[in-house]
Structure formats: structure tokens, C-alpha cells
Amino acid sequence: MLDYFVLLNAPRRPWLDLEWLKERFLALCAQTHPDHTHNAGEAEKAAAQRGFTELNAAWQCLREPKERLGHLLELETGTRPGETQDVPAAAMDLFLEAGRVCREADVFLAARGKMSSPLLRAEKFGQGMELTERLQELEHRIGRRREELLGELEGMNAAWEAAPAPGSASRAAALPLEGLEGMCRMFSYMARWTGQIQERVARLSF
To answer: How do residues 19-41 score in pLDDT, each as one tens digit?
Structure first.
């Protein structure tokens, strides 16, 4: 499998400085852009396009914590973390609140959708604004929790810096892979909740 860390000449770590990563990505793109091969043969053009596509895939993966951690786990263990319905205990309160507020928004939107009278819809405006504010406050809470997790990820880099080199038989035992998988699931849940909240906020605005 492709090692996206190698493609971008980035250290294999749970946390990466996104500004540095973006600069690295743009510099490599400038060097390898397919436009540089417009006078080359078809095979060379195809290879340049393939390399450019892989660089883009590497950037899209490593810039997002959930995707980066999944890729890192696959590099270290040979498999990506599987899907699970089990909500991490640390996220249960957020999960329950997100589900409750989203359900309330769905009920409100369904009822409003059946109203043909502009007057009746106007009477529901305040309720819609209240739901929007609650959803946005919840999104901010998820964002703050996400920032806390990013700080924890940065702290995990030390384990990768001190671990034996990739391929070493003792490497896996030196890495907190179970904790990394838990972090991957947390980022996955938060991305899902954020998407659901944003979708409902957008619908409430109409």
C-alpha cells in the first residue's frame, strides 16, 4: 500500500502541523505538476498524472485527523480500524445530546414542511431560531472537544519518535496503538455529528 507520509516527506506521526504539511504539499505539487511534461511521451505523461493524483490523495488523507489516524493504524498494524456502533464512554454525553437535538430539529422540520400558510410558518420562526442556536452551540462544543483531542494527539508523537524503526519486531509493543484507535473513532464520531448538525442548520435557515 502507498505510504502517504513518505509521499509527502512527512514524519509518520499521529499529529502533524497542518501549515507545514500544506506548504510541503504545494511545493511538491509545483515540482511534479503534469504541466511540466506537456512535451513528454504518453507514458511519462501518464506517470506524472498518476504521481500528481497520489500526492493529492496523500494531502486529503493526512490533513484530516480521522483519515490520518486510520492510515497510520493501517501502516502499523496492516488493517484499518473497523466500523463499530459502540460510542466511546468519553463521548457519550455529546452523543446523547446530539441525537436529542437533531431529533427535535427533524420533528420541527417535518411539521413546518406540512404548513402551507405563510402566517403559520412565521409563527414557527422563533422555535426554528432556538433550535438553530442549540445546534450551533453543540457544534461549538464538539469543536472544542476536537481541539482538546488534537492536543492529546500532539502529545502522542513522542511515542512514535522514540519507537523502533518501521519493520522492527518490537515496534508495535512500543506504540499506543489501542489508544490511537480510540482517538480515530472519536474523530470519526465528531465528524459525523458535525455533518448532521450542519445539515439541519442549513435546512432550518430556509
So the answer is: 999 999 999 988 877 666 666 66
Q: Identify the pLDDT of residue 159.
A: 97
CA gap 101, 140 in Å, rounded: 14
> 3-state SS of the chain?
CCCHHHHCCCCCCCCCCHHHHHHHHHHHHHHHCHHHHCCCCHHHHHHHHHHHHHHHHHHHHHCCHHHHHHHHHHHHHCCCCCCCCCCCHHHHHHHHHHHHHHHHHHHHHHHHHCCCCHHHHHHCHHHHHHHHHHHHHHHHHHHHHHHHHHHHHHHHHHHHHHCCCCCCCCHHHHCCHHHHHHHHHHHHHHHHHHHHHHHHHHHHCC
Q: What is the mean pLDDT of the chain?
A: 90
Residue with grid cell 464520531, as numbered in its chain: 189
Asked whether residue 194 falls in the same domain as residue 94, the answer is yes
In angstroms, the CA 80 to CA 186 distance is 15
CATH of the domain at 32: 1.10.287.110
**Separation between Cα atoms, residue 51 and residue 125, nearest integer Å:** 52
Query: Residue 142: what residue type?
Result: I
Q: How many domains does the chain have?
A: 2
Regarding predicted confidence, which is higher, 54 or 42?
A: 54
For residue 156, what are the contacts with CB-CB under 8 A and spacing of at least 6?
14, 15, 176, 179, 180, 183
